[in-house]
Amino acid sequence: MNSYPNETFETESLFFRRITVADAESEFEMFGDPEYTWFLGRTFSLEHIQKGIQKEIDKKIFTNGLGKWAIISKENNETAGSCGLVKVKNKDDIEISYFLKKRYWGKGIGTIAAKILLTYGFEYLKLPLIIIRVHKQNIQSINIALKLKMNFI
Q1: Stated pTM of the model
Q2: CB contact set of 51 (below 8 Å; sequence gap of 6+)
Q3: 117: closest CA among 142, 89, 91, 97?
Q4: DSSP tag of 121
Q5: How far apart are CA 115 and CA 147, in angstroms?
Q6: How far apart are CA 48 and CA 41, in angstroms?
Q7: What's the Cα-to-Cα distance from 61 to each of 3, 98, 119, 139, 142, rounded to whole Å?
Q8: I need a labelling partner for 112 at 20 to 30 A (CA). Which of 7, 17, 51, 143 fits?
Q9: Helix, strand, or coil here: 47?
Q10: How far is CA 148 from the centre of its chain?
Q11: How far, in Å, CA of 37 to CA of 1, rounded?
């Protein structure tokens, strides 16, 4: 692991820790569901998700403080979803991502995750720019971006 000041994050109701291959089943609950992944145009198998997480770990995606975190509900110790601060493929941009299980939608968790990652990215990593890419029909994610006063380009 890196020596960045916040490899884990915590709020009153949530705990954020680095994602591991053991989180693949939780990720599959989201990414194996066609209703959930409509904006991606496909679903993903459990094996694909396991290999993807391992590949990210092997490629040292967690270097320079970037990476992905599991979002844990303190209420029931269940993984509510995941979030990330990652480099956009084939670009220099750094992007925030957040994915929540359906039963955690509408509880403000996406906003909390994005706000934590923005703070971490700007204050600790000293990133000059952080983006959120949102599908134009994903109203919930658009609302999160608006709450965080992100600019649309």
Answers
A1: 0.88
A2: none
A3: 97
A4: I
A5: 9
A6: 15
A7: 14, 16, 19, 29, 26
A8: 51
A9: helix
A10: 16
A11: 30
Helix (H) or strand (E) holding 18: strand 14-18
* CA distance linking residue 74 with residue 1, whole number of Å: 23
Q: How does pLDDT run along the chain (153 residues), one tens digit per residue? A: 334 455 788 999 999 999 999 999 999 999 999 888 888 889 999 999 999 999 888 776 667 788 899 999 999 999 999 999 988 887 888 999 999 999 999 999 999 999 999 999 999 999 999 998 888 888 888 888 889 888 776
Tokens describing residue 99: 């994915």
Written as six digits, the tokens of 8 are 């884990």
d(CA 10, CA 74): 10
How far is the C-alpha of 54 from the C-alpha of 24, rounded, in Å? Answer: 10
Strand arrangement, sheet containing 79-87: 9-10, 14-18, 67-73, 79-87, 94-100
Alpha-carbon span 109 to 107, nearest angstrom: 6
C-alpha distance from residue 83 to each of 79, 101 (Å): 11, 12
Token representation of residue 116: 């934590």
